[in-house]
Each structure stands twice: as C-alpha cells, then as structure tokens.
Amino acid sequence: MKSEIIKVEGKQTKEIRIANFVEGYCNDEGYDQKTTLRMRLLAEELVSLISSMEMDIDGEFFVESTDKEIELHMNMRTFIYPERKKELMGLATVEKKKPKGVLGKLSQVVQGYLAGVDEDEQQQLELARSIPYGMYGMTGSCMGNQMMESITAWSLQRYRDAIDESIAQNEADEEEKDELEKSVLANLADEVSVGIKSSKVQLIVTKKL
Predict the structure, then answer these.
(1) Per-residue pLDDT reduced to its tens digit, 166-185
(2) Which of 55, 89, 186, 187 has the smallest set of CB atoms within 10 Å of its CB?
(3) Which one, of 125, 101, 114, 83, lies nearest residue 177 by Cα?
(4) Please, what is the angle between helix 101-116 and helix 121-130, to 10°?
(5) Rounded mean pLDDT of 31-46?
C-alpha cells in the first residue's frame, strides 16, 4: 500500500508533520504500537538528515508497505549555482573531511549525489567511486543512454559488511563500529539505500515486519 505524497521544500523540514504522517499511516494500516513507534523514530531520523544538509531540496516523501516490510521514501533534487555545486561535490569526495556518525556519513553521500545528479553518466560514475563510504557495490542497467537511469549508490548493509570485514582484517577504526552501534537509524532500520533514478536521488529506509 502506497501513501499519498508529501511535498518537501527547503532544508528545514517540519519534523512533526512527517513523523505524524508516518504514525497515522501505520495506525490506518493496523500496525501494532511497537512497529508504529519504530517507524515514527525512523521518520524523525530521516528528517534530521535532511535538516542537517548544506543545501535546499525539492523532494517528495511517501510511505509504501507490503506484508513483509515498510519503506520510507524520499525522492530529491536540488537547485544550486555551478560554483556551489563544485564546492559540494568536492566536500563529498575529500576523505580528510570525513563526517561523524552514520547520519553524517549518509548526509555526505546524499549531498554528493544531489550535486552531481545532472552531470553526464561518466561523471556520475566517477563521482560515485570517489565518495567515501559511498560505493560498496553498484547495481543498475547499462544500456546506452539508460546507464544511469537506476543505480544503487550506497547501502547501509554493505556499509556494515565492509566495516566488519575491515575489522576482521585489523584494518578499520573501531570508532566506525561504535558509531553504528549507537545510531538510532542503524539499529532500527534493516536497510537504508541511496540511489539515482530519473535525475533524482532516492533515499529509502526499510523496516522488515
């Protein structure tokens, strides 16, 4: 079941509006109190992410569910001057500016793709490969001009797996594992993915039932 769409404009999003919307959706669909509370908390995390970004967005938010999972969807674009776009793309790709926490890293990835979404396919692929934490695998079609029509650029599960693998090989900072364990988003969501489709950046938070 797909909900109605909420329009999101600007950086400062009204958290209560979206949180109440998600809670109302869960109540209407007959989910129990525990599930409803968790989905509200995930919605609040999503809004905190958007509010922390250094750019205004034009987006659409909606909820979609099946008998197996609930998803929070945010489809986004941004409108920025070329000079600012170059600055933000640089911010996303400079490793010495690594952000703190899961939300900080996710914000960096989202902003990098928002800044580069209107570039050509090759530039998008190069940007994707250069963003820290942003490329733990890619999926998408590669048919002529449709190469970048649908692509998964970042995945929370792949991020988790990469950290576990690095720790097993004594290559990772335990701080990143600690950040995952303390993150509300990482603890409540089964998956968070960032993708590009039809010149928009898609952020999807998934909770299994």
Answers:
(1) 777 776 567 888 888 899 99
(2) 187
(3) 101
(4) 160
(5) 96
CA distances from 57 to 7, 39, 124, 143, 192 (A): 10, 23, 19, 29, 19
Place of tokens 């205004």: 56
State whether residue 129 is helix, strand or coil: helix
Q: Which of these, 53, 56, 44, lies nearest to 15 by C-alpha position? A: 44
Query: What CA–CA distance (Å, rounded) separates 109 from 106?
Result: 5
Instruction: Indicate whether 90 pLDDT > 80.
Output: no
H helix intervals, the chain: 15-28, 33-52, 82-93, 101-116, 121-130, 156-168, 174-182, 184-188
- CA neighbor of 189 nearest in space, from 145, 163, 155, 166: 155
List residues bridging with 2 in a β-sheet.
Answer: 64
For the chain, the straight-line distance linking the first and the last C-alpha, in angstroms and rounded, comes to 14
Tell me which DSSP letter residue 67 carries.
S
CA nearest 2: which of 60, 59, 65, 61? 65
Q: Please, are residues 153 and 194 in contact by the beta-carbon 8 Å criterion?
A: yes
Predicted confidence (pLDDT) per residue in 136-152, tens digit: 344 443 333 444 445 67
Distances in Å between the Cα of 51 and the Cα atoms of 24, 25, 121 are 22, 23, 28
Among all chains, which residue has been given the structure tokens 């109302």? Answer: 24
Q: Which pLDDT belongs to residue 186?
A: 94
